[in-house]
Amino acid sequence: MGSLSFVGLGLCDEKGMSLYGLELARSADIVLIETYTNIMPSLNIRSLEALIGKEVKMVDRHYIEDGSHLLRTASEKDVALLVPGDPFIATTHVELRVRAERRGILVRVAHAPSIISVAPGVVGLQNYKFGRSATITFPDNYSEVPYDTIIQNRRAGLHTLLFLDLRAEEGRYMSVQEGIRLLMEMESRRGEGAVCPDTLMIGIARAGSPDQLVKGGRAEDLASLDFGPPPHSLIVPGRLHFMEAEALEVLARVDRSLLSKYVERV
Amino acid sequence: MGSLSFVGLGLCDEKGMSLYGLELARSADIVLIETYTNIMPSLNIRSLEALIGKEVKMVDRHYIEDGSHLLRTASEKDVALLVPGDPFIATTHVELRVRAERRGILVRVAHAPSIISVAPGVVGLQNYKFGRSATITFPDNYSEVPYDTIIQNRRAGLHTLLFLDLRAEEGRYMSVQEGIRLLMEMESRRGEGAVCPDTLMIGIARAGSPDQLVKGGRAEDLASLDFGPPPHSLIVPGRLHFMEAEALEVLARVDRSLLSKYVERV
Prior knowledge:
2 copies of one chain form a homodimer. Chain A is α/β, with parallel strands linked by helices. Helices cover 36% and strands 20% of the residues of chain A. Chain A has 2 domains: 3-110, 3-Layer(aba) Sandwich (Cobalt-precorrin-4 Transmethylase, domain 1); 115-262, Tetrapyrrole methylase, C-terminal domain (Methyltransferase, Cobalt-precorrin-4 Transmethylase, Domain 2, 2-Layer Sandwich), CATH 3.30.950.10. Chain A is elongated, with a radius of gyration of 20 Å. Chains A and B meet through α1, α5, α6 and α10 of A and α1, α5, α6 and α10 of B.
């Protein structure tokens, strides 16, 4: 009897793995890793192998999405699959889990930090004031969902977390600059006032890493700022509690004058 | 010069801490832990001390919220504060961080899994289809926010994650049963059809623990089910993608007949 362990690696490097995750990886017969669903800025496979004490084999999108070899192996041996972030944010891992459980394969999970829970906290915004999130996609896969999402959330006073598209296999990662530029282009097409040069936005680079960069300000100003290496993400705040405004001033170095327009009058 | 390290412990026990978090705790002069912002079902302070190799001192709500002794200490020594879940989901830790940064204290952060990112994944629902979340509070702190949130999210086809109130100091934790009963009471007061006995809900107990329990079904049926020890949380799905329906069938053992009403027609 085999098993399949999903082990989250978190957001930065191999030390984002939990102690439980390390146990699962160490006790597995076979250790696989996929790095196409997200990017971990400082991951080093050699250090990972040294930590776990065995070979870590890289698998690609096709291997995971097809899944048949993986599931056959996990019916006989203990397989650990290491993945960036938390294991079940990517739909493809949920699908794999469902297939494994249908076959009666024992599934174990070591959760890890995800950008979804980390982003609100590192900028100091309250989690329950976020509406739905959306992804700004590359122009060849154009979608106005992020534009509509900002409008809907803002109408309810809510913050919006925007993921920025990535194609890890091609080494393409959308930057905060590019994300804002794409939102501005949607604005000129739609003209409904979701974003303007003065709109408060917060760019996040390498969330959860020691060299994380969090910087908020006017959209136009951020659009000319270099946030450095990927991954990046973007937050468009709704109405701010005064404690949130204070946090943004300190953690995202936003000018107090810009914040005052957003603070809820009690 | 001192420092303040926020170290998330995750959702279950001391092994939810990341390897980076363990490093921060081991290298600190003083290690504190608070356990009032959330409950970790299997945390053992003795095992935690053995792992870290030093005494772990429990501090209470007043100590954290007041913060003055903690910040004074962290201006001179390296202090690690261990917290349940991810460090910055609780507003009180964000406030502490802001105060520390204002004083020029070096802040380090080891993120960890949070119920916010774990809950959608373990039931197999897609993260970007969640609207805002809300907390069902105990009746002596009555609020209809969760009721309104379900209505607003469902109108947009979105899922709702509901946190269930807790008062760790009093050992009081709301159960899935109690949460559903309180929603039903709001329904009889408001009568807007947010929840009815047939509404699909998913109860989650001890998310992220090896003895995690995920079970979905009709609200009325779940309301008579014992989910065991805390913590619990509740999801009220909106419209379902067929892959989400399939995941709910396997991961939350929901009857296919109940799911079909919720699946989006493409």
